[in-house]
Design a protein that fits this description.
two-stranded parallel sheet; alpha/beta; eight-stranded mixed β-sheet
Length: 236
C-alpha cells in the first residue's frame, strides 16, 4: 500500500468504504461484532498480517508452551511488520482471550498500525489506553490457552465472518473494521474520498433544510452545480 492511499483511507469512514465495495459486488467485507476498545482513538489503516487459532486441546496447551521461543502467538507479535494490522482469527469465540496488554503493547512499540480479533482481549482497560487502535468483541480474562491454540502465521483466515488474506488493507474507525482486497485498495481510496466530499456537502444542505429527493443521490442537475461550487469554495 502506498502512503497516499494510507493517508486517504484515514480520512474516510467504514460506512463509505462499505458502499464503495458494494458497488463492486463485495458485500461481506465488514467484520461482524467487533468494536474499538477506545472509541475516541484515531482511525486505523494497515495491511493485514494474520494469526490463526484453532480450538485448544488440553494435552497440547499447558501453560509451559509459552516457554517455547517458537510459540506462534509470540512469533506473530515479533514478526508483524511496522504499519501492519495484526488480524487474529479466534473463531468468534471470546470465552478466552486472544491476547493481553503486554503483547499488544509490544505490537505498539514495534510500530504496528493496530490489532483486531473476533474474540476478546484480556487486560482490556489497559489496552484501551494505548496509543494504538485495538478492536475486539468483548473483554475476556481467561488466558488464550484455555480455548485457543495458535497455529498459523500470515495465512488466509476468517475474522468475524470476513475472509482476510495477508496484505489486504484493513481500515478501522469508531464504527468497526472493514477489509479491502489489496488489488483494488488504491481505487477504493480514491472513490471513498470523492464520496466523502459529496456526503459532507449533502449533510450541510440537509442541515439547512433541503430535502433529499434529487439531492441524495444527485439526480438533479442543480445538485451537481451546487456541489461543484461547494467543492471549489472548500478546496475539496
Amino acid at each position: 500500500m502506498n502512503e497516499q492511499t494510507r493517508a486517504k483511507l484515514k480520512t474516510v469512514s467504514t460506512a463509505t468504504l462499505c458502499t464503495a465495495l458494494y458497488k463492486r459486488g463485495l458485500k461481506n467485507q465488514f467484520i461482524q461484532d467487533v468494536r474499538p476498545l477506545n472509541p475516541n482513538g484515531a482511525n486505523m489503516v494497515g495491511e493485514a498480517f494474520t494469526l490463526r487459532y484453532i480450538p485448544a486441546r488440553e494435552d497440547l496447551n499447558p501453560i509451559t508452551v509459552f516457554q517455547n521461543r517458537d510459540h506462534p502467538q509470540r512469533v506473530a507479535v515479533e514478526q508483524c511488520p511496522p504499519g501492519a494490522v495484526l488480524m487474529i482469527d479466534s473463531r468468534k469465540d471470546a470465552r478466552a482471550a486472544s491476547a493481553g496488554s503486554i503483547l499488544i503493547t509490544r505490537l505498539m512499540v514495534r510500530g504496528a498500525a493496530g490489532v483486531v480479533t473476533d474474540g476478546g482481549f484480556r487486560d482490556s482497560p489497559e489496552i484501551a489506553e494505548l496509543a494504538m487502535p485495538a478492536y475486539h468483541n468483548r473483554p475476556s480474562a481467561p488466558t488464550n490457552l484455555t480455548l485457543h491454540q495458535a497455529l498459523d502465521i500470515n495465512v488466509p483466515i476468517g475474522c468475524g465472518d470476513v475472509p482476510v488474506w495477508p496484505g489486504d488493507v484493513v481500515v478501522g474507525d469508531r464504527e468497526g473494521v472493514i477489509v479491502i482486497p489489496a488489488a483494488i485498495a488504491d481505487e477504493i481510496a480514491d472513490e471513498a474520498v470523492e464520496m466523502t466530499a459529496f456526503e459532507d456537502f449533502v449533510m450541510e444542505e440537509v442541515k439547512k433544510g433541503r430535502g433529499i429527493i434529487g439531492l441524495y443521490p444527485a439526480t438533479d442537475e442543480q445538485t451537481r452545480v451546487d456541489f461543484a461550487a461547494w467543492r471549489a469554495a472548500n478546496g475539496r
